[in-house]
Amino acid sequence: MPKLNMVQAINMALRQEMEKDDRVILLGEDIGVNGGVFRVTDGLYDTFGPQRVLDTPLAESAIAGLSIGMAIFGLRPVCEMQFSGFSYFAFHQMEAHASRMRSRSQGRYGVPMVLRAPYGGGVRALEHHSESREIYWAHTPGLKMVIPSTPRTARALMVSAIRDPDPVIFYEPKALYRAFREEVPEEEETFPIGKSRIVREGEDITLISYGASLRWTLEAASELHEHDGIKCEVVDLLSLSPLDDELFVESVRKTGRAVVVHEAHCTYGVGAEVVARIVEKALLYLEAPVRRATGFDIVIPLYQREQDYLPGVRRIKRAVRETLKF
Amino acid sequence: MPVKEIDLPYRVEYFSIIDPDGEIDKSLDPQLSDELLIRLYRAMLLARKFDERMLILQRQGKIGTFAPLKGQEAQVGAAAALDSQDWIVPSFRESGVEIWRGRPMERILLIYSGYNEGGAMPDGLNMLPVSVPVGSQMLHAVGIGYGLKYRNQKAVVATVFGDGATSEGDFHEAMNFASVYQVPVIFLCQNNHWAISVPRSRQTHSKTLAQKALAYDMPGLQVDGNDVLAVYSATRDAVERARKGEGPTLIEMLTYRVSMHTTADDPKKYRTEEEVKEWERRDPIVRFEKYLLGKQILDEKRIGSINEEVKAEISSAEGRWSEIVEKGVDSIRMFDNAYEDLTPTLRAQREMLKREMSEEQGA
């Protein structure tokens, strides 16, 4: 099994799906000859040519809008927003059309497209290159929203997203693009959209996270075990919409305590929804209020301060200890 | 370095074939069969009468807000210039085009009386549902056009939008992408001179909308949009070019929204009666009727019988619509088509609604 980083793993998924299915077409800014600014589409232009790997003019609304037309026509476009911070130009197309076409046409036209976008902080970038605003998409009916946390989940989720009959927003944690390698099987592997997974078992408290913050959550869990003997169970959401509440609710019923971790802003964030589901489905199992370790409700600062903005190991450990002390 | 002029061989043509008095310019006559001419006349009349009927139904409270098309019926000429395998991506004032293509009138009534079921398209129509956000649908046409080109299909795409839409960024993006990828798309601009209360002159300082095509090295032309033969001819030429792989075209059709923007709008607030009267003189149906009478393709008797046929067709569509409406609406079906498969959360929400409804019935 090859050990790949996340960039290579997503590239593998795209390449294999393009080999299998000539409906799969890629479009975006600098994704062709240049292979994408993060090199996610590296080499695909050479293999599949300009008809299937489109270097587009610089216009995000058109990239999404063309993808919608292509998907209605019967292709399976995978479009790239160079950074999620620029994807809001495309938001209108996704909200007004991609998410509604199935309903508007009463099932006549689905929009099987994937919108990929690198998101999140921690890479010492310019303004607009570090946001974590997944909730805009996850809040929109008709869209699906996934965020992988490892190379293997990225590859499997991308295959599932391409084959999904509905539009899928695929956020790529760019802090993890080259952070580590993982064995990714050459043979086909999918991961069902709408399912989460347990990545660490424990009985004292449930930590729920996704994307780049899952890594910090796992580091915190490991330190808490080492220094305090606290056994954290860690849930990787993977899919924000549809949200798999069964797995984390079941875990909280076991542990009685939970902390939700994400780098996105706190207020109205994924944490708010997760806490609501826990309250609805596991209130009487709770031993303490559910806490959130998240980014603050401000524009993410430039990189000299971003480590103190992001919910790193320090913030997560503190939230866990406070929850256990309650 | 000397200043020199860059030679750009661009021009914008305007043409009209039948004038308001029904006189034809023989050199431009597309020489359509009598049968097609009568079909065009009938389709325009049907669009007009259906529009008038919808306005009555709206004023009676039987349907909700809609965007009347009165005055823009010559748009059917564009639909007639397309083949059945071609795609149509409409905006929201194209009931003439939609009916020509085969969208049942009862579905249009269903949408405007609040039934999502009205959005369903019959099999193989190759037409997208009405798109409300101004200008945004043009990009879908370009995406479909890319698909046609990728699959080496001979079909083309026509997308319809108004003068206001040319101010939207998506108009620029669609025109630009269509030109870069040389896709078979025909951009049909219904310049009806008013975007709600904003006149065409305030929408852009450009002399024409057609000239905007030139920035993309795309042919752009302006036609008399109240002349069904001019609309037909211009579209047919653009379709032929697109089919041959020669890329997109922008056609600006000069027409006029004689009625209101939507039934919630009062145009008296922002434009003069004189202006409306002037455009009524150029009515697309009256002019075409004069021409057909002059050419003895139609006579008063045949016009009378076509009127009767059209009325009967509308009344039978209204009958089918009433039958559906009388059956009532099953609210549980609001969850259909949210996704291909309902998510667990949506299943739970649907169950909640079912319980609410059954409790209400029990109470």
Q: In percent, how much strand structure appears in the residues of chain A?
A: 15-25%
Cα-to-Cα separation, first versus last residue of chain A: 45 Å
Mean pLDDT of chain A: 97
Query: What would you say the CATH architecture of the largest domain in chain A is?
Result: 3-Layer(aba) Sandwich
For the largest sheet of chain B, list the strands in their spatial order: 1-7-8-4-3-2
What is the chains' assembly state? heterodimer
Quick one: how many beta strands of chain A? 14
- The CATH superfamily label of the largest domain in chain A reads Thiamin diphosphate (ThDP)-binding fold, Pyr/PP domains
Tally the helices of chain B: 12
- What is the CATH architecture term of the largest domain in chain B? 3-Layer(aba) Sandwich
Euclidean distance between termini CA atoms of chain B: 89 Å
CATH class of the largest domain in chain B: Alpha Beta
> How many strands appear in the DSSP assignment of chain B?
8
Describe the sheet with the most strands of chain A. Answer: 7 strands, mixed
Main beta-sheet strand count, sense and barrel state of chain B: 6 strands, parallel
Q: What is the averaged pLDDT score of chain B? A: 96
Largest sheet, spatial ordering of strands of chain A: 3-2-4-5-7-6-12
Q: Per DSSP, what share of the residues of chain B sits in E-state strands of 2 or more residues?
A: 5-15%
How much helix, percentage-wise, in residues of chain B? 40-55%
The dominant shape of chain B is globular
Identify low-pLDDT runs of chain A: none
